[in-house]
Design a protein that fits this description.
With 356 residues, the chain is of the alpha+beta class. It is built from eleven helices and 17 strands. 28% of the residues lie in helices and 29% in strands. Bound molecules: adenosine monophosphate.
């Protein structure tokens, strides 16, 4: 058993959005303090954290001060600049480690990593210009999706290609950024597995959830997902395989397409994941506490689902429904304390417990 971090230790969290906020709450329940690093003025996590550093990701002095002030470092998003990590890595342990970030920061590297593990992915090819896109489309066929290799989230940095004559427009839409082209996967539904791996290599997975997206943004997660027993086992084994290959420490999200040919991996997220929010009200130990347990050397908690849950994101004007939801006896509201409501902005979520 690895020694666990003492009570009162300080966990540095890079990124102060809702994920950092919910990680901070979970960490404080276990007696840890959180120090948030975020460039924006009033990050949601800052409202519940012990300390906040407001500085850019290229501010070396601020990064050094942060790294020296914390005992370990974790993060809520994968697009952390490499230079920032170069500064931080000598100052405190970073969990999950850099290999997980390297792989998940670039869609091409990620797809190749998954394929090398023997996992099914959408057919894909590297796209550097119009000629390589045309060649790839000839091989993969349409419909297809062009995705920027880096900095894509919530459906951003993507362009759909229904037929080959749309290739030029799609390239323009993503501003000719380095990209991959993916064949369209004919899936019946989408699921995800949230798994945790501890410092000593134990793995625990939550029950897979079934996800509904619209406009590239997650709308809802329902547990249990529609999966056969064999698919459920497969999903969990895939997540464990990925976590082991990365020597991963912390919580990881794996998004999967369910097809008649089995499970196809869409992408991995080296962090707590929106599709794992249901665990807050469906499990004794949720994904946020599980992550904190994993990175601080605590034993992993029991992630068994005790209730069926439908998690629904509250996006933009969905906030108007809060008064009504607040009156419902089977709903747990989780609001992120964001000052301004904007279309497409995740403002909170609601976990509805499904009673038998
Ligand atoms: P991503 O940002 O890669 O997670 O994509 C967002 C959403 O677009 C996914 O959750 C799917 O609903 C859809 N999508 C992405 N890639 C594919 C694909 N290769 N085939 C079919 N649908 C896809």
């Amino acid at each position: 058993m690895t020694a666990s971090l003492p009570q009162g230790s300080i966990i540095g969290i890079i990124g102060g959005g809702q994920l950092g906020r919910m990680l901070s709450v979970a960490a404080s329940r276990l007696g840890f303090l959180c120090h948030i690093y975020d460039p924006s003025a009033a990050p949601p996590a800052g409202q519940v954290a012990y300390q906040v550093t407001t500085a850019a990701y290229d501010d070396e002095a601020a990064l050094r001060a942060f790294g020296n002030a914390v005992d370990i470092i974790t993060y809520e998003f994968e697009n952390i600049p490499t230079q920032a990590l170069d500064v931080l890595q000598d100052l405190a342990p970073i969990h999950p480690g850099r290999e997980a970030l390297r792989v998940s920061q670039d869609r091409l590297t990620e797809k190749e990593f998954l394929r090398n593990l023997g996992l099914q992915t959408a057919p894909f090819a590297d796209v550097t210009d119009a000629a390589s896109l045309d060649a790839a489309l000839a091989e993969i066929g349409a419909p297809a999706i062009l995705k920027t290799r880096r900095f894509g989230y919530d459906g951003k940095g993507q362009a759909r290609i229904a037929s080959r004559d749309q290739a030029a427009a799609a390239l323009k839409e993503i501003q000719n950024a380095p990209a991959i082209i993916e064949g369209f996967v004919d899936f019946t539904h989408e699921v995800s597995v949230i798994a945790a791996r501890s410092l000593d290599g134990a793995v625990a997975a939550f029950d897979p959830g079934e996800n509904v997206h619209s406009e590239g943004i997650l709308r809802s997660t329902t547990v249990p997902a529609r999966l056969t027993a064999a698919q459920r086992t497969d999903a969990v084994l895939m997540a464990a395989k990925i976590a082991n290959a990365l020597n991963y420490v912390g919580v990881l999200g794996v998004e999967l397409f369910v097809t008649s040919d089995g499970l196809v991996v869409n992408e991995i997220a080296p962090r707590v994941h929106n599709s794992g929010h249901w665990t807050q009200n469906g499990c004794v130990v949720d994904q946020f506490e599980q992550h904190i347990r994993a990175i601080t050397g605590w034993p992993l908690g029991d992630g068994q689902r005790h209730s069926d849950v439908v998690m629904e994101n509250l996006i933009g004007n969905d906030m108007d429904r809060v008064p009504e939801l607040a009156q419902s006896t089977d709903c747990a509201l989780h609001l992120y304390g964001k000052a301004e409501t904007k279309p497409g902005r995740k403002m909170g979520h609601v976990n509805r417990i499904i009673r038998a």
